[in-house]
Design goal:
The chain has about 210 residues and is of the alpha/beta class. About 35% of the residues lie in helices and about 25% in strands. Pathway: Cofactor biosynthesis; riboflavin biosynthesis; 5-amino-6-(D-ribitylamino)uracil from GTP: step 1/4.
Length: about 210
Amino acid sequence: MTATLRTDLELPLRFTDGWSTTARVVSFDGLVDGREHVALRLGPAVRREPLVRLHSECLTGDVFGSARCDCGPQLRESLERVAEAGGYLLYLRQEGRGIGLSAKLDAYALQDAGLDTYEANVALGYGEDERDYTVAAQMLQALGERRVALLTNNPDKGRQLAALGIDVTRLVPTGVHRSASNARYLAAKVRHGHLNGHEGASVPVTVQA
């Protein structure tokens, strides 16, 4: 199934800390899950290797500024870094690592009782991470991008994109946005294979057979 571009228009962005930029927001038809994912095209044109961030929706962190996770700060950082380098931020409607908002809040309650973020998902009958990046590969292909550098601390994103036919040349980690409220959450992510977030470092992508 092939995705196609639906709408491409200018979107001025402005944040409360004073940073602003202008993006092109792109919507799509034909995505396999039928959801309304969008891409933001930012910064200078890049011919061979755009910097790409796959950002999963987090209402609590992105909109309400929740300190339980690092999603809001990662979104803010990613937009600025992609705008500097040239590339795309794909905003994916995969709340709670793919389990949805209500289930994510159920998982928060289990975390308050002592489970970590992955254990809580499993206790609710879900996988540790339910996200599938097929739509992200579709979006990149529709945009004409098949070779990218990926801005992420999560190697699974790179492995999935590579398996879906996107040439991921390297992973570029984001910074670490640690606080007293999210320290356990971030430690759990590292235990489950996330990079430590040393900004400026990059690592190759390997695809497991």
